[in-house]
Amino acid sequence: MISRGSSRRSPNTLSAARARLLDEIRQAGVSDPAVIAAITKIPRELFVDDALKGRAYENNALPIGHAQTISQPVVVAYMTQALTQGRKLDRVLEVGTGSGYQTAVLAELVGTVFTVERIRALSELARQRLSALGCRNVHFGYADGMNGWTPYAPYQGILVTAGAEQVPAALVEQLAPGGRLLIPVGPQGRQSLKLVERRGSTVREQDLGWVSFVPLLSGKV
Ligand code: SAH
């Protein structure tokens, strides 16, 4: 098949790609109607550069500058469902705002999203995008999220969108009782997606499968 330049793709091509992607998301086991509705509502093409808009509904991570990527949409949907599990969580922390796409999807589903990003330019751009979308329940932080975001803790859910070497203890500490943390753990490009659940004084850890994220780094830039 001859692939055409993204800028020449028509809106129809984009909506056909979007429908195919929703099928892929359902096939990956995402069935929660609220998650499907959120993914359907948020236009992923608004979270990538103009030159990449034609590829916005491919199930791929795409570059967003600063050596970072917007996460794969099937993984965004899967992680969102695994975090919320059909419940409306009150407060959720996202570590790694990036493009703001996952943030916008979460904001449709939970009370308040607290999202931290270590690259100032990405945080600012995400803030502008979500404001343009009329999203009012998100607090943006320009911070190293390796240690969570203490002032607003505890959280019923914490979602980390970059690969950590190990589960940071601070994140587990910032989980509310019954809270769930989703975090990719392992080397760059191949991590195991861990679900960490806090039940009273015990912590349960489960592997949900392989994922591929950019690394969780310390410090701010
Ligand atoms: N969910 C985002 C994923 C972006 S990639 C999206 O779909 O667009 C992961 C992001 O995590 C990058 O923007 C990177 O800068 C950020 N990141 C990495 N380490 C971090 C840290 N310690 N604190 C906050 N953000 C971090």
TrEMBL record:
Family: Belongs to the methyltransferase superfamily. L-isoaspartyl/D-aspartyl protein methyltransferase family.
Organism superkingdom: Bacteria
Organism (species): Solimonas marina
Any one Gene Ontology BP term: methylation
Keyword Nuclease in record: no
GO molecular function terms listed in the Swiss-Prot or TrEMBL record: protein-L-isoaspartate (D-aspartate) O-methyltransferase activity
Main function: Catalyzes the methyl esterification of L-isoaspartyl residues in peptides and proteins that result from spontaneous decomposition of normal L-aspartyl and L-asparaginyl residues. It plays a role in the repair and/or degradation of damaged proteins.
InterPro entries named in the record: PCMT (IPR000682), SAM-dependent_MTases_sf (IPR029063)
Keywords attached to this entry: Cytoplasm, Methyltransferase, S-adenosyl-L-methionine, Transferase
Gene: pcm
Cell compartments where the protein resides: Cytoplasm
UniProt-recorded name of the protein: Protein-L-isoaspartate O-methyltransferase
EC number: 2.1.1.77
Active site location: S71
GO CC entries: cytoplasm
Catalytic reactions on record: [protein]-L-isoaspartate + S-adenosyl-L-methionine = [protein]-L-isoaspartate alpha-methyl ester + S-adenosyl-L-homocysteine
